[in-house]
Amino acid sequence: MENENNVNRRAILVGGRKDGMDEDAFITGMDELAGLCRSLDIEPVGELVQNIIKEDSATYIGSGKVEELAAEVAEKGADIVVFNNTLSPAQLTNLADAVDTEVLDRTGLILNIFTERARSREARLQTDYAHLKYMLPRLVGLRRNLGRQGGTGGSLSNKGSGEKAIELDRRKIEKEMASLRRELEDVERIRSEQRKKRSASSLALVSLVGYTNAGKSSLMNRLLADYGTADEKNVYTADMLFATLDTSVRRIEPEGRRPFLLSDTVGFISDLPTDLVQAFRSTLEEALYADLLVEVIDCSDPNYKMHMDVTAQTLKDLGAGEIPIIYVMNKADKVSGDYPRKVGDRIYVSVQENLGMDLLLDEIESVLSVGSTVEKFRIPYSDSGVEGVLRSEAIVQECRYEADAIMITAEVKPETAGRLRKYIIGGQEPLH
């Protein structure tokens, strides 16, 4: 749905190419900045590039380039300038004065996208906190930005949590941040309790990770449609950057395979603002508790290798670099080559065409079955609830209802076998 406040906004994109920076990486970054702008209904109408040997402390790009930027803004009728770099409070203020229009940096732009996309209470709290933290040292520059909107829509500099905060003094903003921290601590405690309950069930947790807009939420909805339970709701999807900010956990029950919990997480992006990483850490840390990571990659994107590098580094930074991982090369229908197929550690699929899901589920089953054993259970009818436990946590191979007991043969994980040890009458060696 189009955001009425930002329709027809026109932006000049500015990139400072630092000495020694890879040319392809720079071009990719600028293309990504254009995509971020369009996700907020801002149309890039011009681009300015400055080679930077040493960053100018006053304007980042230097006075000569600022004059060129001001002329470009006037010529193209732009009402916002967006930098693909992080600007200091002083640079933001000086640039807004010099070009006489609203100025945003990459961090501010991503924060505004998060503000617009946040749906759950947790996501809103996390985004509000990050936005206020970003705004606090930039109050002077943001106030000046308010007067440079050109009548084409609301300023992005103080969007969402900042709309009222811009009028508050520093002390009030800090008080609001303290209140948000307390609320986030409460939410984190609830999330921790939910993790403990999931852990107690012995169901494996599989987490979807990857670059933003790679198709993680679409994959979850595809698996939910075919293997979810009746009460499991779809997650939100859209062809845009950062469509999903909330972590959703759903139960998947593939026929003939073990059931598992599947979580969808916020997408990664290069140079994700530090304040956002810190604010969303409790959400991102869902990946730390996974038994298996499924990285979804848009293999039709020419920059997919860079996206994989960014994801690998983000997972490493979070402490999830050692968790087993499956690489799902999504959107294979958009590139040449046969699919679905498995090549090494990569599975080529098309979520949209529903091709390759069996290959993926086989691979998930293979990883999750490590350490499992096939056990025979004798369950008295007085303890018939144990049958339900096995059907929900294991793969039941055989079930017979005899005169005095239920006889079940099932493939179980060590945790489940340990809890139900008194019912085991025999077993085999681990499967792997």
Give an overview in words:
- The protein is an alpha/beta fold.
- The chain has 15 helices and 15 strands.
- The strands form three sheets. Strands 6-7-5-8-9-11-10 form a seven-stranded mixed β-sheet, sandwiched between helices. Strands 2-1-3-4 form a four-stranded parallel β-sheet, with helices on both faces.
- A hairpin with a 7-residue loop joins strand 6 and strand 7.
- Helix 3 runs parallel beside helix 6, helix 4 packs antiparallel against helix 5 and helix 5 runs antiparallel to helix 8.
- The chain is elongated.
For the sheet with most strands, the description reads: 7 strands, mixed
Secondary-structure class: alpha/beta
| % residues in beta strands | 15-25%
Q: What is the CA-CA span between the terminal residues?
A: 49 Å
Number of strands: 15
Helical fraction equals 40-55%
Question: What Rg do the Cα atoms give?
Answer: 26 Å
In order across it, which strands form the biggest sheet? Answer: 6-7-5-8-9-11-10
The average pLDDT value, as a whole number, equals: 82
SSE string? EHEHEHEHHHHHEHEEHHEHEEEHEHEEHE
